[in-house]
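Quick question: what would this complex look like in 3D?
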Amino acid sequence: MTQSFLKALMTGAVLSVGVASGATAAECIAPANPGGGWDFTCRQIGKIMYDIGVVDQPVQVTNMPGAGGGLAYNHVVTERSDDADLFVAASSATTTRLAQNAYAGMTADQVRFVGAIGADPGVIAVAADSEYQSLTDLVEAIKADPGSVAFAGGSAVGGFDHMKPLMILQEAGFTDITSVKYIGVDGGADAITQTVGGFTQAMTGDMSEIVSFLANGDIRVIAVLTEERVPGFEDIPTAKEQGYDVVAVNWRGLYVPKGISDEKFDEWAGKLQQVADSEEWAKAMADNGLAPFTKVGGDFQAYVDGLVAEINAMSKELGVIQ
Amino acid sequence: MDILANLALGFSVALSPFTLFLAVCGCFLGTIIGALPGLGPSNGVAILIPITFTLGLDATSALVLMTAVYYGAMYGGRISSILLNIPGDEPALMTTLDGYPMAKQGRAGDALVLSGVASFVGALLATVGLMLLAPTLARVAFFFGPAEYFALYLLAFCTLGGMASNNQAKAALAACMGLGIAMIGVDSSSGLPRLTGGNLHLFDGIDFLVAIVGLFAIAEVFFFIESHGKGSSIGVKLDKVRIPWKDIMSTKWTMLRASGVGFVAGILPGAGASLGSFLAYMSEKSIAGEKGGFGTGVPKGVAAPEAGNNSAAGGALVPMLTLGVPGSGTTAVLLALLMTLNITPGPTLFTERADVVWGLIASLLIANFVLLLMNVPMVKIFVKILSVPAWVLLPGVTMISFVGIYSLSGSYFDLLLMVGFGVLGYVLRKLDVPTVPIILGILLGGKMEDALRRAMTLSDGDPTYLFSSPIAIGLWVAAIAGFVAPMFLRNILKKPQAVTD
């Protein structure tokens, strides 16, 4: 609360307009600056929770950027571990970092993952004038000469965007994954710019990052990493149907502090389910290139545990961690 | 004329009594936010975003308010630069170099009006540029790969030596310190933390604002304490504000050139308003030559960075709207606002959401005129806020610095770091080492390193890749010339001076 209170205080001082903050209002921490996926999760879920009446006060959104979500994680674990009115935006990036021990020793079991209600499907795209017409073309080119294709993505080396093409290549039987070129740039749009500009040959990212470039005809999406084709984007083939059984989605979800009661945990899970079922959320997903992906409560916790173990194993193989 | 029709659509959206009222409020708030040291446009806009939701504003109104704040902050930053020698926000850094000496000569009013007019020219030209060229200019980003970006940042560093100090060795030392500080944090190419000592607070590196507030504001407080308030550099008197027509006329070409330079710098993703004002100042300085007296308080030295940074602020909207790649910190926050309003910027925004884009452009034009009125005849109101006695102002500066920095991440660690930077700034100023290159090192160092690392990954470590395109080669030539030329020029130009002395 300290930060939002201070922000309110400063805003008040500047504007002479106080921001009412109810004592019982729930708070959502977005562990990043405004504008990213975590911020979107907090603002959309918070807004819909209030609009459909599952919370009686508007949800306060606090941005707590730092250490790729590590500062917020540390804050929740050490200072707010029994705060029942707090939830925090999370995504695949959260579990990837936990699996790679990137939160300075903190582990995934120090919070409770309450649910995911939507996922941003992973995509592999090339420039519209690229010689690679399909995922198979790209994979075969890398197999023949690993140096011939460089990927650009919005996450750092070893991050989820980097993992996506490597998962596909491993599936295709290519084992020398450290020879695959990857550069991490500032977000998906930047990755597309580099690819369209011809500096890299392919872009790895999320569906939401490419939506606006698709209509423009600058890029060609050669694979989406979901079980089935994504509604609204039926002409984009999945990796699976091209013979590479890889599903990699960037889910959007929440975690809550570990110390809250089981009743409270189930209550949040229920509220999240209601958001997932709402028309407002369906519209928000459609507008932002998200595909339905609902897992709440115990189901989701099990999914997260599995994911952390899987990424941990792969990262060791990659040499990203010891 | 498509553009006129579109503009008419934009004005029909943006021109209502309510939106005009919002524009005036936004301009006023923005100017104050910009003027207060430490509270820059990016955190200012970020802090105000919740207000737009609290007030339940629709997309257009929210955009009008926020862009007015954004442009307002760009105007406001110059006020404290000129009067206090503390940049109100990062792009106003360059304005201190001539603005403050000019104020010390008793021409604070002239400097404020002149910089206000320069800001207007820069922002107006940039808005017109945005209007005419945005869809085309968006393609420029496609020509900039890692090698080109590296050369661009190198250019900025190479021209540093001549700018920040008369001693290039000291400037180079300061730039290296800045680059060193920029290395702290998680290495973006390998994901491993560097120089953090395991401290989670250092994983993201050192925030630029922490360093700037420490090196400028807190160091100033230390000097104030040392002198017991006597002879403190803070608190330049502003007697009368009149319009310095002569200065405005004599700097008209400077303003136009600086606007052009700033606009191009703004368009390049990630470069932003700081680089815009920097390049505008440097190019004007080299045009004026040693005799131009840049750094001693000349009108051109005030007009150039202000026209440059306001024009870059407009330019930075181009990649944000057309590619979804923010051109600066503040546009990143504006991007966040657009996304929350369910407007996804991208190449198709101009055709699909014409009402939003042209409403935004119309509101930028409106905001710009409001700001000119507010910042020229009414500048005294803002000055009043800052021209309180030093014994009131400095505790105020200290408080705002602490509150502003605390609001960034809500951690007291940043406060300690800021005080540390204050001590560093104090020591460096005692040693006559310029602090501006440190700031630029922190600001650009990480990006420059990223560009180099990416270039090396793509080329398998082949250094010739850095010279592989005409754009990159051109930038390299300019960088080397920019570093070497001042040494020779200084020798040539100093000789006749020695004779006359």
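Answer marked as accepted. Residues 494 and 500 of chain B are 10 Å apart (CA to CA).
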